[in-house]
From TrEMBL:
<dbReference type="Pfam" id="PF00625">
    <property type="entry name" value="Guanylate_kin"/>
</dbReference>
<keyword id="KW-0418">Kinase</keyword>
<comment type="function">
    <text>Essential for recycling GMP and indirectly, cGMP.</text>
</comment>
<dbReference type="InterPro" id="IPR027417">
    <property type="entry name" value="P-loop_NTPase"/>
</dbReference>
<comment type="similarity">
    <text>Belongs to the guanylate kinase family.</text>
</comment>
<dbReference type="InterPro" id="IPR008145">
    <property type="entry name" value="GK/Ca_channel_bsu"/>
</dbReference>
<feature type="domain" description="Guanylate kinase-like">
    <location>
        <begin position="4"/>
        <end position="183"/>
    </location>
</feature>
<keyword id="KW-0808">Transferase</keyword>
<dbReference type="GO" id="GO:0016301">
    <property type="term" value="F:kinase activity"/>
</dbReference>
<dbReference type="InterPro" id="IPR008144">
    <property type="entry name" value="Guanylate_kin-like_dom"/>
</dbReference>
<protein>
    <submittedName>
        <fullName>Guanylate kinase</fullName>
    </submittedName>
</protein>
Amino acid sequence: MSRPSIYIFTGTSGAGRKTIARKVGGELGWTFVRSCTTRAPRNPSLPDEDYRYVSREQFDAWDKEGKFAQTADIDGNRYGVLHHELEAANAAGKSVYLVLNRVGADAIVKQFVGLAVRIFIYVDKTTMRERLESKGVSFEVIDRYLEHYSDEVTYRSKCEFVFENVNANHTAELIRAALTKTS
Ligand SMILES: Nc1ncnc2c1ncn2[C@@H]1O[C@H](COP(=O)(O)OP(=O)(O)OP(=O)(O)O)[C@@H](O)[C@H]1O
Ligand SMILES: Nc1nc2c(ncn2[C@@H]2O[C@H](COP(=O)(O)O)[C@@H](O)[C@H]2O)c(=O)[nH]1
């Protein structure tokens, strides 16, 4: 892969990581590499490009065959990014972006040394709850995610860039400016 070609949006759940990733990645012409997950879609009746939803059997089989660049088990669900999807985007000469938790971010950074950049997006706990509620996430899931908040937020000290996402357009603008300065 050419450098730096993998942008990882990580941070606290519900902070707006996907929203910001789409804005920045869309404007800079990066390709989104969706994770696979065994989690059920939250709104099955609505189109959802966030994940590739697969059965547990399919996921475990691909994992056994070594098809994932990284995997994570979170609250009983499995998540992972397929190697060939990362490579396909890169072969087309594109930088890619991913949205991962800290475990996935660490794994990708170790695997693609010098090629991956972590962009940490966070909000405070009250805002996190409001944003997840606005997305229709159940109270039970929100309470579970809030339990991970302290672990998630401390990961920011390891990331190359850190942004509090108050206003989405402003956050995206700051990220573009920061990346342009360092490229
Ligand atoms: N700056 C912002 N101000 C207000 N609402 C926002 C902002 N950024 C994102 N949102 C909204 O907050 C909700 C969560 O955003 P998003 O899904 O992008 O977050 P995420 O961190 O990817 O979430 P998840 O933890 O579920 O993966 C969405 O409804 C989104 O429209
Ligand atoms: N390590 C990985 N984390 C991932 C991956 N895909 C998504 N995620 C993160 O998992 C949690 C839970 O996601 P949710 O959509 O079920 O709320 C969140 O932090 C995601 O960013 C992955 O492939 N690897």
